[in-house]
Design brief:
Length: about 250
């Protein structure tokens, strides 16, 4: 897992995951296996933190959350924090400036942040107000699921369907191809939207078998040909103990 932490440039700083197909799972695995002091939060509403995370949770309003997190972080390695529920089963996300204030005060070795939602879909493209990447983010990890490739482009697979169509060139109902995924990963209004000067490390997740690995490798190689904004694409599978499947570089 240490190799994956470094490949995702998640050893230190403020690391934000965006996209669809495994943001929360990826961040939780990084949080559990990182050897240092870790914070975990979100800029958007999110499901409750999983019990398997075994994090010390701080759920508080904006006026109380900074000192509350700092107090817990002084004695606990892993702190997950959010605002109280905005609707049943979902905590509220923190404003970017509040996240920056917490990081300055708590000084986590790494602060992991979920930067958008995807409603359990496998591919998405951001709308105008997305993603919500905190200022000062050092790494952005755009995620897409390999299991989207080969599936018809419909609302069942894609979040923000019209944006996915516009950015990838895919049409409603047609199979999503590796090239469609590559265009999404390399597009300034797709996976690169809002990344600023942060290091970008795209992840193709759910590479759970050789067939999906072949498709993901094709998408990764094509994406690297379309942009110089990132220098590698990481293939992962959270069904496997190692989780790291492959890395495609220039």
């Amino acid at each position: 897992m240490n190799e994956l932490i470094d490949l995702l440039a998640a050893r230190s700083g403020l690391v934000c995951a965006v996209g669809a197909g495994g943001k929360k799972t990826t961040l939780c695995h990084l949080a559990v296996f990182h050897p240092g002091r870790v914070g975990l939060t979100s800029t958007v509403p999110m499901a409750h933190f999983p019990s398997t995370l075994a994090a010390h949770e701080v759920i508080a309003d904006a006026g109380e959350i900074v000192p509350a997190v700092v107090e817990v972080a002084a004695t606990q390695r892993l702190v997950a924090f959010a605002h109280p529920e905005v609707r049943k089963g979902r905590y509220g996300g923190l404003a970017s400036e509040l996240i920056a204030e917490i990081q300055r005060a708590a000084r986590f070795d790494v602060l992991l942040v979920k930067g958008d939602g995807a409603r359990m879909r496998r591919i998405k493209a951001p709308e105008a107000s997305e993603p919500v990447i905190p200022e000062g983010a050092t790494t952005v990890i755009p995620i897409v699921s390999a299991r989207a490739i080969g599936q018809p482009l419909t609302e069942e697979v894609a979040h923000r369907l019209s944006r996915v169509e516009a950015i990838t060139g895919a049409e409603y109902g047609e199979p999503i191809t590796p090239n469609h995924v590559a265009r999404l990963l390399a597009h300034e209004q797709g996976a690169l939207k809002g990344t600023g000067v942060a290091t970008v490390v795209p992840v193709i997740n759910m590479v759970d078998d050789p067939e999906h690995e072949t498709l993901a490798l094709e998408a990764a190689r094509a994406a690297l040909q379309l942009t110089d904004r990132f220098d590698r694409v990481v293939l992962t599978s959270h069904r496997q103990t190692n989780r790291l499947v492959n890395v495609v570089t220039r």
